């Protein structure tokens, strides 16, 4: 039974290693694989739906499936904090596992747009939301000085999922059909989440229930700029994830080669979620996420000039690496900008709720721009939004620690 503690982030009492601590990293790795990893896979579904199952729908309409799924991940995740604090961590993971696997199996039976919305967007989205907070919060009770490293290793699971799931779907779908290809993915989720259910273990819980809202956060400049920076960032961040495959096809690339672009992004993102986080433990998370966010936006803009598979693939690899920090580091930054440790969960949940709106509307906006103006305008939109996010996070960092490049605690 997990004990309760007035300050779960007291560095003197945090182990920062040991068997159970690293088992939680393993558990969180598979939770990330089946939350953000599933979100990162949607580009493959987007391409398949546009030419197959949902060919009568526009790219913008199809992208609502993936964006709603991602929004529910963050929104439901932000609402499950009190359930986590009450000690029902295993229940959250079990319910999330059921919904993800059940939604995947129901997706295999879908033939209409509304059915895909209900199964893939709503059911799987809510399931991933139940898994999201345990995957992040458990680690903060086992690690303090090595938190960014632990979160980075766990977050690499989302990149691994973003490689395994699309490759499996792409190879299996022509051979055994859409229904069974999707079912195989469901069985992979069941097996990997089974490990998380078996080993997840909360070390300590807050002494009391946390508040759902902390209005005083909106009086703090660093918090305001970071929340709206991540909101703006998610408006543009997933544009290449959703549309880079169809862009390559429009350039005349063979389907076999175009497919691997999403796998390249996710594979590179594995290193982008681990290596920068190792550096973040030494120089501070702000000093890592800011330049990486600017580079992510610039690389998206570079897609405008990319007219061959080689150039698109090179940009995809770099984009995957630099964009990885935008998913793996925000949780660590919320810890750094929250003075009262008892409010970390509350403020993180509030921030994710706002960010989820950006994730909801970002890729449909990209799809609408694509329908109206083509790929160049789509990449311009994604790049400008991400660069703007870097600027806002930079303001957050300066307001928190000044212009010097020392680590901001």
Q: What proportion of the residues form beta strands (DSSP E)?
A: under 5%
What strand line-up does the widest sheet have?
A: 1-2
Query: Over all CA atoms, what is the radius of gyration?
Result: 20 Å
User: Major sheet, described briefly?
Assistant: 2 strands, parallel
What is the count of helical runs? 16
CATH homology-level superfamily: MFS general substrate transporter like domains
Tell me the number of structural domains. Answer: 1
For the record, give the distance between the C-alpha atoms at the N and C termini, rounded to a whole number.
32 Å
Structural class: mainly alpha
Name of the CATH architecture: Up-down Bundle
**CATH fold field value:** Growth Hormone, Chain: A
- The count of DSSP E runs of length 2 or more, i.e. the number of strands, is 2
* Overall pLDDT level: 85
Q: Please state the overall shape, judged from the principal axes of the Cα atoms.
A: globular
Q: What's the CATH class, please?
A: Mainly Alpha
Show unreliable segments: 5-11
Order of helices and strands: EHHHHHHHEHHHHHHHHH
Helix content: over 70%
Main location: membrane
Organism: Sphaerulina musiva (strain SO2202) (Poplar stem canker fungus)
Transmembrane segments: 20-39, 59-76, 88-107, 113-140, 147-168, 180-200, 221-245, 257-276, 288-306, 312-337, 349-370, 376-396
InterPro entries: MFS (IPR011701), MFS_dom (IPR020846), MFS_trans_sf (IPR036259), Proton-linked_MCT (IPR050327)
């Amino acid at each position: 039974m997990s004990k309760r503690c007035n300050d779960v982030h007291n560095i003197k009492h945090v182990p920062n290693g040991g068997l159970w601590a690293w088992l939680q990293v393993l558990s969180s790795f598979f939770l990330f694989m089946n939350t953000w990893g599933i979100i990162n896979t949607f580009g493959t579904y987007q391409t398949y739906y546009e030419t197959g199952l949902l060919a009568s729908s526009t790219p913008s309409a199809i992208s609502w499936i993936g964006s709603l799924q991602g929004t529910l991940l963050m929104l439901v995740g932000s609402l499950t904090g009190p359930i986590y604090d009450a000690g029902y961590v295993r229940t959250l993971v079990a319910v999330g596992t059921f919904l993800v696997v059940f939604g995947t199996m129901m997706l295999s039976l879908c033939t209409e747009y509304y059915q895909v919305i209900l199964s893939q967007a709503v059911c799987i989205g809510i399931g991933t939301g139940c898994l999201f907070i345990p995957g992040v919060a458990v680690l903060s009770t086992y690690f303090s000085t090595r938190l960014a490293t632990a979160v980075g290793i766990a977050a690499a699971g989302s990149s691994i999922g973003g490689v395994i799931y699309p490759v499996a779907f792409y190879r299996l779908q022509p051979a055994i059909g859409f229904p069974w290809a999707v079912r195989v993915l469901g069985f992979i989720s069941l097996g990997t989440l089974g490990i998380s259910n078996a080993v997840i273990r909360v070390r300590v819980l807050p002494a009391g229930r946390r508040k759902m809202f902390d209005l005083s956060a909106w009086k703090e400049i660093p918090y305001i700029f970071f929340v709206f920076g991540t909101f703006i960032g998610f408006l543009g961040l997933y544009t290449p994830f959703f549309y880079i495959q169809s862009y390559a096809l429009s350039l005349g690339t063979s389907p076999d080669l175009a497919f691997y672009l999403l796998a390249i992004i996710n594979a590179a993102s594995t290193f982008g979620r681990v290596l920068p986080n190792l550096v973040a433990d030494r120089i501070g998370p702000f000093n890592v996420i800011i330049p990486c966010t600017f580079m992510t936006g610039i690389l998206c803009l570079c897609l405008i000039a990319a007219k061959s598979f080689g150039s698109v693939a090179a940009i995809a690899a770099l984009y995957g690496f630099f964009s990885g920090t935008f998913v793996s580091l925000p949780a660590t930054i919320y810890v750094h900008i929250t003075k009262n440790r008892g409010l970390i969960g509350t403020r993180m949940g509030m921030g994710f709720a706002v960010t989820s709106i950006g994730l909801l509307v970002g890729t449909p906006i990209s799809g609408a721009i694509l329908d109206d103006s083509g790929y160049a305008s789509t990449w311009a939109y994604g790049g400008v939004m991400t660069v703007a996010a870097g600027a806002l996070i930079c303001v957050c960092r300066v307001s928190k620690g000044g212009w010097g490049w020392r680590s901001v605690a």
